[in-house]
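Example record

One chain of 129 residues, shown exactly as stored in the release files.
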Amino acid sequence: MNSDEQGIRQLIAHWHRATADGDVDAVLPLMATDVVFLVAGQPPMGRDAFEKGLRAILKTHRIESTGDIQELQVSGDLAYCWSVLKVRMIPLAGGASTQRSGHVLSVLRKDPSGSWQIARDANLLVASQ
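Predicted structure tokens for this chain:
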């Protein structure tokens, strides 16, 4: 595994840990300022909307997620990563958790400092058990 692939795998692992910790400020630098998230049935979402939504969710839920990378390709300063993602939302007030799972295709871009960031993310998660 080359250093770019390793860096992208570390970014994804860091994203899962920071989200589980409820640390939105640690998630933000992992995405480009012009990031676009594509979710079925929703309009495209930029960084500000994503941050606002994540902060709102974390006020009422804890998030646990895992990702299994199926394919990772790097070409210069661009890369794509196809993963199978599972996300579990656990209400802080108690009660039943919900789980969503499915495929995610992410496009990553290397910033001027040499760090990888998510630039585009298309997620096909559906309710699961």
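Notes: The mean pLDDT is 96.
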